[in-house]
Specification:
Layout lengths: L2 E3 L18 E4 L6 H5 E5 L6 H7 L11 E7 L2 E9 L17 E9 L7 H14 L6 E6 L8 H5 L3 E5 L3 E6 L2 E3 L1 H8 L4 H6 L4 E6 L3 E6 L16 E2 L2 E2 L11 H7 L11
Parallel strand pairs: 1-2, 6-7
Antiparallel strand pairs: 2-3, 3-4, 4-5, 5-6, 7-12, 8-12, 9-10, 9-11, 13-14
């Protein structure tokens, strides 16, 4: 049985960690839309959203290892999901003194097209506030894939920092689907093309363009640790400033100006 709680009564034990009992749902309180009022965000086991992600997300797969998962429900219907993983092996190094346990990577995020506009930023804002209550997590990373037509609009709308482009990567095409080399290693014990072909697995290589990298600081005291100077947000068709103030000239100014703040209570 699901338990409905106010966003203000949550705790770090409501994120689906071992030892937590039951499920936590968060009622979105918005006067703008009856639909938005009926949306709930819940921390859930990965199994609850695996089928949805495999069907609806453009990658059609879950990450090899998941750390936190959230379901978005409209009444009794599952209408969205967010999946967080540990991310790249050295991704945590964008913050000085960080370790892999300090970072989450938003690896999958999907909500149904029939939901009202701006539902993604509202849902993501609630998830970030929930994660911010867990002292283990200091920041979240995510990547927008320009090959899929994404520039990170939702991250820009929710105040993430843009950290520039990643290095180009490759995917392995197995059964007609692109799979990250780390996932291939987990599934088959190796991501060597020659080894996979010797074992009868048909595989080809797909080279991918760089992705846009974003960071969201959950713990404001960690803002100064950022090693990379935040840049102007990318936009469709080229580079350019966001629809708002230009980024600060230093990381210290960015922290003091609010670019590292968590959403406050009235943002919900």
């Amino acid at each position: 049985m699901e338990t409905s709680k106010s966003i203000m009564r949550g705790s770090s034990r409501e994120l689906g960690h071992s030892g937590a009992s039951g499920e936590t749902s968060v009622q979105i309180d918005s006067p703008r839309s009856n639909t938005l009022k009926r949306l709930r965000v819940e921390a859930v086991p990965a199994a609850r959203v695996t089928a949805l992600i495999a069907t609806e997300h453009y990658l059609h797969s879950m990450p090899a290892v998941t750390r936190e998962c959230f379901a978005v429900r409209l009444d009794d219907s599952l209408v969205g999901a967010a999946v967080f993983s540990q991310g790249g092996r050295y991704a945590y190094r964008v913050f000085a003194g960080a370790s892999p346990s300090h970072v989450l990577t938003l690896a999958r995020f999907w909500t149904a097209d029939e939901l009202p506009p701006n539902n993604e930023s509202r849902v993501l804002g609630i998830i970030l506030r929930l994660l911010g209550r867990d002292e283990r997590y200091k920041f979240v990373l995510s990547y927008a894939d320009p090959a899929a037509g994404h520039v990170g609009t939702i991250y820009q709308a929710t105040g993430w920092l843009y950290l520039g482009e990643t290095e180009p990567e490759r995917s392995l095409i197995i059964d007609g689907k692109p799979v990250h080399p780390r996932t291939v290693s987990t599934r088959y014990g190796s991501n060597s093309i020659a080894h996979l072909r010797r074992t009868g697995i048909p595989v080809t290589v797909q080279h991918n363009p760089p992705k846009y990298r974003y960071a969201y600081v959950l713990d404001p005291s960690w803002g100064w640790r950022l090693r990379t100077q935040p840049a102007l947000y990318p936009k469709r068709g080229g580079r350019g400033p966001p629809q708002g103030p230009k980024p600060s000239s230093s990381k210290k100014e960015a922290c003091e100006s609010g670019n590292f703040r968590r959403p406050n209570k009235k943002d919900s």
